[in-house]
């Protein structure tokens, strides 16, 4: 289990996340909804280790979550232009590789084989040597997911991963995320502005308003009124 | 794996070749990577070899340099870097160094100020987004020709016109500023966002009015930054123009070298150092102030 206990994060006098506690289950994709400014991004950044919470703990199976165990998929991919798809995926493994390998571009064959396997996993067979700036938005986001998986994480996070994609492409990208979570048995947490795109893949819903949880229920027990309620709140 | 990838691909993986196995693609990638890596190593080795050959042709002989290391060492230790003697020299020469330093700054300031308006006009005319090809091509060529001649040579030429002294130096700095800043201004002008320019043009504004209304406001910050940077560069340049008789700190510098008075050489170098650091600090302050003012009013 991933346990978040009493998580609080202030920015000056502003409270972005206010004493939030919840549990996530392995192999399940949790969808995080809420209006802009509700604290979704701050929660994800605290889970990923990009920010330290002021108070509260994050534990995976009773041990504190290490930054390298949480991988974040960014909005619109956040890939490095000028590098190929496989080189971008290899960036996910930088924390366990010596720096000289990236400096001279000599990665171990094993890592490269795994990286290509990740690209196949997200439906990009044959794309390894394509420059990422030539890929479509949906394909770039798939490379972003492959890069996150290359990190060999325990927790897969995604911050508005489909905000810049058309609905159909967004659905397919979310499906890829959901499959990665179940296949690798990860904790999955995705923040979304269009929750209807996730109705077929969501296992659990979290709703935030003003830094607090206002919805925390399995997807089977959530209907569209509950989701509307989160957006009406605050 | 293949059927699942296809089932939720949403059309975007139409080009994805599901029959391609990971092994095959890995082999293909390794082949491409080996070729590319080999090419890079070849280029790097070729580069090192050509630099080594050029250095050998120039007569680089590390053994000779090492054998004669004491020549420079003794001058440095015994004459240039002796704090007490240097301090005495600085005090004794202050009456000559301070006016020469002031002259150097004045040469840089007057030269930059004289060159700036001409650089603005030429820079605008040389931008391919502002003028048609028959105007910007010859102006660019002219700017390139101006840049091809070093400032030292301009200084020698202007000594013929203005006589020995700082006027020749200021004119040389002005011409160099036109060539360099004109080019930078033109490049900056070509990078701007064309949409507001079209919006202003669509109101029926003429070419000069359009440039003033929509182009210049987009480049003002960059132009100020470049101009201040050129003031710094010109201060450095004008500190050596005196070597050819065009005023400033260069004249005492070359005279001290000729007299083999290396303590005085070091005193002049210290004066140049103080001057350059001072100009850079002032320019940075000014940049910061202009930058922060812009942020406030935006």
Automatic annotation (TrEMBL), chain A:
Alphabetical list of InterPro entries matching this protein: AAA+_ATPase, ABC_transporter-like_ATP-bd, ABC_transporter-like_CS, MetN_ABC_transporter-like, P-loop_NTPase
Lineage top rank: taxon: Archaea
Record Pfam families: ABC_tran
Domain ABC transporter, residue spans: 2-232
The entry's keywords: ATP-binding, Cell membrane, Membrane, Nucleotide-binding, Translocase, Transport
GO molecular function, one term: ATP binding
The name this protein goes by in its record: Phosphonate ABC transporter ATP-binding protein
Lineage of the organism: Archaea, Methanobacteriati, Methanobacteriota, Stenosarchaea group, Halobacteria
UniProtKB/TrEMBL annotation, chain B:
Major localisation: membrane
Pfam families, per database record: BPD_transp_1
Annotated segments matching region Disordered: 1-23
Transmembrane segment boundaries: 37-58, 105-127, 167-186, 240-259, 265-286
Domain of life: Archaea
InterPro entries in UniProt: MetI-like, MetI-like_sf, PhnE/PtxC
UniProt KW keywords: Cell membrane, Membrane, Transmembrane, Transmembrane helix, Transport
Any one GO cellular component localisation term in the record: plasma membrane
Membrane topology (UniProt): Multi-pass membrane protein
UniProt entry tagged with the keyword Transmembrane: yes
Residue ranges of domain ABC transmembrane type-1 in the record: 101-281
Family in the record: Belongs to the binding-protein-dependent transport system permease family.
UniProt cross-references to NCBIfam families, sorted A to Z: PhnE (TIGR01097)
Record's protein name: Phosphonate ABC transporter, permease protein PhnE
Organism: Halonotius aquaticus
Gene: phnE
């Amino acid at each position: 289990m991933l346990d978040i206990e009493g998580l609080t994060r202030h920015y000056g006098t502003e409270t972005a996340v206010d004493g939030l506690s919840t549990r996530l289950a392995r192999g399940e994709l949790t969808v995080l909804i809420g209006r802009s400014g509700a604290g979704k991004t701050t929660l994800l950044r605290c889970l990923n280790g990009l920010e330290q919470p002021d108070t509260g703990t994050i534990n995976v199976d009773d041990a504190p979550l290490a930054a390298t165990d949480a991988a974040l998929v960014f909005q619109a991919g956040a890939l490095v232009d000028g590098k190929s798809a496989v080189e971008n995926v290899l960036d996910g493994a930088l924390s366990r590789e010596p720096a000289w390998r990236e400096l001279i571009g000599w990665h171990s064959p094993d890592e490269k084989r795994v990286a290509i396997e990740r690209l196949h996993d997200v439906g990009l067979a044959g794309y390894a040597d394509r420059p990422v700036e030539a890929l479509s938005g949906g394909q770039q986001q798939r490379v972003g997911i492959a890069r996150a998986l290359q990190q060999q994480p325990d927790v897969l996070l995604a911050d508005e991963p489909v905000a810049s994609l058309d609905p159909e492409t967004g659905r397919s990208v979310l499906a890829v995320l959901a499959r990665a979570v179940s296949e690798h048995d990860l904790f999955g947490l995705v923040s979304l502005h269009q929750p209807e795109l996730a109705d077929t893949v969501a296992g659990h819903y979290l709703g935030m308003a003003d830094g607090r949880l206002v919805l925390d229920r399995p997807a089977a027990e959530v209907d569209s009124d509950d989701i509307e309620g989160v957006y009406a709140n605050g | 794996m293949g059927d699942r990838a296809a089932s939720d691909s949403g059309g975007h993986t139409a080009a994805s070749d599901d029959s391609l196995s990971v092994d095959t693609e890995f082999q293909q990638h390794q082949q491409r990577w080996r070729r590319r890596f080999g090419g890079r190593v070849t280029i790097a080795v070729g580069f090192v070899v050509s630099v080594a050959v050029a250095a050998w042709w120039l007569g680089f002989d590390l053994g000779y340099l090492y054998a004669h290391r004491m020549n420079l060492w003794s001058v440095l230790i015994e004459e240039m870097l002796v704090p007490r003697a240097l301090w005495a020299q600085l005090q004794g020469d202050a009456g000559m160094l301070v006016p020469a330093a002031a002259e150097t700054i004045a040469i840089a300031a007057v030269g930059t100020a004289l060159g700036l308006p001409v650089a603005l006009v030429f820079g605008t005319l040389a931008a391919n987004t502002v003028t048609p090809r028959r105007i910007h091509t010859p102006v660019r060529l002219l700017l390139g020709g101006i840049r091809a001649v070093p400032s030292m040579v301009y200084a020698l030429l202007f000594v013929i016109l203005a006589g020995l002294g700082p006027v020749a130096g200021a004119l040389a700095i002005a011409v160099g500023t036109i060539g360099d800043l004109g080019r930078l201004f033109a490049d900056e002008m070509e990078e701007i966002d064309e949409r507001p320019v079209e919006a202003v043009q669509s109101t029926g504004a003429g070419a000069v009015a359009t440039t003033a209304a929509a182009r210049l406001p987009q480049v003002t910050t960059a132009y100020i930054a470049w101009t201040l940077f050129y003031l710094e560069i010109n201060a450095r340049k004008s500190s050596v123009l005196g070597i050819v008789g065009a005023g400033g700190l260069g004249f005492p510098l070359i005279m001290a070298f000729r007299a083999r008075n290396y303590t005085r050489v070091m005193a002049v170098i210290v004066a140049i150092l103080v001057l350059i650091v001072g100009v850079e600090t002032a320019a940075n302050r000014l940049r910061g102030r202009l930058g922060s003012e812009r942020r406030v009013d935006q």
